[in-house]
Amino acid sequence: MTAPAAHVDVGAYALGLLEEPDRRAFEAHLSACLPCHEELAALSGVAATLDGIGPIAEAPGGLPEPAPVPELLHRRIRRERRGRAARALAGAAAGLVLLAGALGGGYAVGADKPPARAAAGGGDGTAALLRDGRRVSASDAGTGASGTVAMQGTPWGSRVALQLGKVRGPLECELVAVDGAGRAHTVAGWSVPAKGYGLPGSPQPRLTVQGGAAVKPADISRFEVRTLGPRGRTLLTVPA
């Protein structure tokens, strides 16, 4: 018996139909083959049932045709293999659905709407926050930057939206909320292209960005737009 043929001898082994050399070879194969173990366990009940069937009396017209036991066993083996494959595929599909659900909901913060990413258009509820939230505006004569900040309290802190204009890049910036104790809470970060926002030749009149901070609106004393890097500076301060 060759190794590739060992799997199909489960039924014959369960019924005790294998010759001694084949039986020993199959038992050696069985010690390292989990699928054959499972099939043998499934067929053990069939083998016990067949062992309990007595001899069939001879019919008047002669001997009856013997039941095709090996073929029936092979059919059952094939059905069980197809069933296991179907269950494995169903489990994999369920895992993909769960994974897709986890990735799709990964932006949610508590029960609130997802915080928006930095974007010139300001989607994901940013426009509504700028319209309905508590708004404060300021400009800086030294840097020329101007902006409006809107905030809204949440169970976990504050949702914050910023509209920023008259800033030339290339820069990397962040918006921080400074509380009454002077601690800075990062709200969002973004990069400014070389042509900037709200300047002659700029592709967009302003930058709109939304984020969140783990501090309540009543505890925020001011917002600051800062540049990142070793020579970082404050482009705009907006009192809260």
Automatic annotation (TrEMBL):
Keywords: Membrane, Transcription, Transcription regulation, Transmembrane, Transmembrane helix. It comes from the Bacteria. Residues 10-37 form the Putative zinc-finger domain. The chain crosses the membrane at residues 85-109. This is Zf-HC2 domain-containing protein. It comes from Actinomadura violacea.
